[in-house]
Amino acid sequence: MQNEFRASQIVYLKHLNTSLYARVIQVVAERQLCWVRPLMLAIAPEELLSDSEKPEVIDLRMSSDLLWPIDLFEPAVDTETISLLIQLKTIDFANFDEDRARACLHRFIQGFWQSRNSRE
Predict the structure, then answer these.
(1) What local confidence, expressed as pLDDT, does residue 1 receive?
(2) Which string of DSSP letters, residue by residue, matches the chain?
(3) Reported pTM
């Protein structure tokens, strides 16, 4: 079943204990692709010690857009997404660690596809 995403909707991909949240820019239905702008990586602790423990959030808003198969995305739930978005601050361009953001996104993508290819 194809997801019916729309522009500005927030979607996510999950790999192990990490979720990539992104905003839909455009759906390319004829190619079954989705153009997204990454927002953040949410890395859940290996073992949640309490309900109040929050995932680590890595800001990806200054990283590269992605063109990704649409059927791999899930729609993000508002209640989960809002609590994560609150952790993002206004971007301080002078202190934004663009290299770290790029490296984290690259590791996530690489791990996602390696895991997916090993299952097929």
Answers:
(1) 39
(2) ------TT-EEEEEETTEEEEEEEEEEEGGGTEEEEEEEEEEE--SS--STTPPPEEEE-TTS--EEEEGGG-EEPPHHHHHHHHTTPPPP-TTT--HHHHHHHHHHHHHHHHHHHHHH-
(3) 0.85
Evaluate if residue 34 carries a pLDDT over 90.
yes
Q: Which tens digit of pLDDT belongs to each residue from 58-81? A: 899 888 999 999 999 999 988 888
Three-point CA angle 11, 31, 102, nearest 5° = 45
| Distance, CA of 26 to CA of 69 (rounded, Å) | 12
